[in-house]
């Protein structure tokens, strides 16, 4: 159990376009989802925390108007990179925190590799 | 300013031997620590965790030790197997279930 999926797994887009990444918890309800990104040879950096039905909380230095997060249901959160630029190219990973029985764990998705040309 | 540090980018160990991966942290508010294993182009997989009220937690071949006074934790893998070869991330949070702060990772290579 506790599977998290991400779609797409890989996306290449032109500079200036917007890209939407989906994160789904497949067999549990996720009250909280987290979005991270990882640059080559760097650690996973938290971008934002998203709670179902409320606005996301962004980390310092992350532009909320550029990285739009929507957590519309208990099983789906989306990250939209608006007006993407080459410096946004990265590996984006979501994680989902389950309810009470899995309070201590976050389950990670497989990640989305974004390349902006 | 990195709050979670893994100072060894890589570690090579022979099959059957012990692998010891180290992690240091600076934020005394961290109360919960985790180790994740990650393969390229995949998300991290949870391995083992420890809360600050303990100094040791064991799960099969994996043991995590926490030294709060030194703000240091380590992951021991015994015996190491070739399938353990991956990047290992240390992570910390202020309480279970909250956002994680990750180290940069240590690449473990286990040779047969």
Features of the shown structure:
heterodimer, A: 117 residues, 7-stranded mixed beta sheet, 4-stranded antiparallel beta sheet, globular, B: 112 residues, mainly beta, 6-stranded mixed beta sheet, 5-stranded antiparallel beta sheet, 11 strands
Task: Explain what the structure shows.
The complex is a heterodimer of chains A (117) and B (112). Chain A is an all-beta fold and 117 residues long. Chain A has strands spanning 4-7, 10-13, 19-25, 32-38, 44-51, 57-58, 67-73, 76-81, 90-97, 106-108, 112-116. In chain A, a hairpin with a 5-residue loop joins strand 4 (32-38) and strand 5. Helices cover 0% and strands 54% of the residues of chain B. Chain B has strands spanning 4-5, 10-14, 19-25, 32-38, 45-51, 56-59, 62-67, 72-77, 86-93, 101-102, 106-111. In chain B, strands 2, 4, 5, 9, 10 and 11 form a six-stranded mixed sheet that branches. Chain B has a five-stranded antiparallel sheet with strand order 1-3-8-7-6, with no helix packed on it. The radius of gyration of chain B is 13 Å and the shape is globular. The mean pLDDT of chain B is 94. Chains A and B meet through strand 4, strand 5, strand 9 and strand 10 of A and strand 5 and strand 10 of B.
């Amino acid at each position: 159990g506790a599977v998290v999926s991400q779609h797409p797994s890989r996306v290449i887009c032109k500079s200036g376009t917007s890209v939407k990444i989906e994160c789904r918890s497949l067999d549990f309800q996720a009250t909280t989802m987290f979005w991270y990104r990882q640059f080559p040879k760097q650690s996973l950096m938290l971008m934002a925390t998203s709670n179902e039905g409320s606005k996301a909380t962004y980390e310092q230095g992350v532009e909320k108007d550029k990285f739009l997060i929507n957590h519309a249901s208990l099983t789906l959160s989306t990250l939209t990179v608006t007006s993407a630029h080459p410096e946004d190219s990265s590996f984006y990973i979501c994680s989902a925190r389950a309810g009470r029985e899995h309070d201590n764990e976050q389950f990670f998705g497989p990640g989305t590799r974004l390349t902006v040309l | 300013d990195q709050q979670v540090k893994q100072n060894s980018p890589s570690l090579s160990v022979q099959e059957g031997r012990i692998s010891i991966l180290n992690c240091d942290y600076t934020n005394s508010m961290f109360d919960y620590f985790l180790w994740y294993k990650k393969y390229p182009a995949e998300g991290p997989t949870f391995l083992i965790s420890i809360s600050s009220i303990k100094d040791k937690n064991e799960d099969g071949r994996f043991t995590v030790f926490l030294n709060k006074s030194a703000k240091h934790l380590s992951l021991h893998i015994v015996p190491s197997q070739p399938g353990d070869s991956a990047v290992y991330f240390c992570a910390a949070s202020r309480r279970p279930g909250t956002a994680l702060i990750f180290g940069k990772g240590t690449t473990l290579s286990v040779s047969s």
